[in-house]
Write a structure and sequence with these properties.
Layout (H helix, E strand, L loop, with lengths): L1 H30 L4 H8 L3 H13 L3 E3 L6 E3 L2 H30 L2 E8 L2 E8 L14 E2 L5 H8 L3 H8 L14 H14 L1 E5 L6 E9 L5 E10 L5 H21 L5 H7 L1
Antiparallel strand pairs: 1-2, 3-4, 3-8, 4-5, 6-7, 7-8
Helix pairs in contact: 1-3, 2-3, 4-8, 5-7
Length: 269
């Protein structure tokens, strides 16, 4: 019982520290600059506690100390965090209209994903006319090795990094899930060569999806756009048409983010 109580106490203390650290950031955002004594007064804690909080934030670059006045202000580390959020918002904003058009063109569900914590994170979704009560994937993470979006995101990595992310024993979801690293590596090479990935019944039986890469101005793969639907419907010519449309849409989103295909650059040169 004593160990359990100690664990709960430590957990509560950690949560309190996080809450206080966030409060420090809010205080500095409002005041511009503050000394440790002022911060302690705002938080209602001892000066030593405030100093420990500020020091921890300073080590992460989230706050910085003014050399002359000795007061603290928000640090440039927050710019890095804000930039990541802004980039994701820009991605969704720039792609939304094109994803809607793709959903209308194919009649199927269109998803936009980014790499997050070694998984594919769904950041936007548009349902087509043929999609009846589609599952809402936004905000959810799914495995990289068992989805077309995931394979596109994996294809942007060196093979060794992709293998490390997936692990030596990838999880099996269906009989079609690729669990061999050798087979997956070969598939990723094909994705790099063709510019798209297809997953048939790999995450769940009856679901097929095709995805293509979205690139930023530097040519880095920053997201993946997919068209998904029932396997019985996305086959043959219909799958071929969806593949072409998905690649074109991903290319247009990439151009809106500043990417220029090699051919365009060669013509300018």
């Amino acid at each position: 019982m004593s160990n359990s109580g100690a664990g709960q106490s430590a957990g509560a203390s950690t949560v309190q520290s996080v809450d206080r650290a966030v409060s420090v950031l809010e205080i500095l955002a409002h005041a511009g600059e503050c000394g440790v004594t002022e911060i302690a007064g705002e938080l209602g804690v001892h000066k030593s506690t405030a100093f420990r909080l500020v020091s921890a934030l300073e080590r992460r670059g989230l706050v910085e100390q003014h050399a002359e006045r000795g007061k603290y202000r928000l640090g440039v580390g927050l710019i890095r965090l804000a930039a990541a959020t802004t980039a994701r918002l820009d991605l969704v904003q720039e792609s939304r209209g094109l994803c809607r058009a793709l959903a209308v063109q194919t009649g199927e569900t269109v998803n936009l994903t980014v790499l997050s914590d070694d998984a594919a994170l769904y950041v936007d979704q548009v349902a087509g006319s043929s999609a009846l009560q589609p599952h809402n994937w936004v905000g959810q993470r799914i495995p990289l090795h068992a989805t077309s979006n995931g394979k596109v995101l994996l294809s942007a990595m060196p093979d060794a990094d992709a293998a490390q992310v997936v692990g030596r024993r990838p999880r099996t979801f269906t009989d079609n899930t690729v669990t061999s690293l050798a087979v997956l590596t070969a598939q990723l090479a094909e994705v790099r060569a063709t510019g798209y990935a297809v997953a048939v019944d790999e995450l769940e039986v009856g679901l097929t999806a095709v995805a293509a890469a979205v690139r930023n101005a530097h040519g880095d793969v920053v997201a993946s756009i997919s068209v998904s639907g029932p396997t019985f419907r996305l086959t043959g010519e219909r799958l071929g048409s969806a593949t072409t449309a998905t690649r074109e849409t991903a290319g247009e989103v990439s151009r809106r983010l500043g990417w220029r295909p090699p051919l365009d650059r060669a013509l300018d040169g």
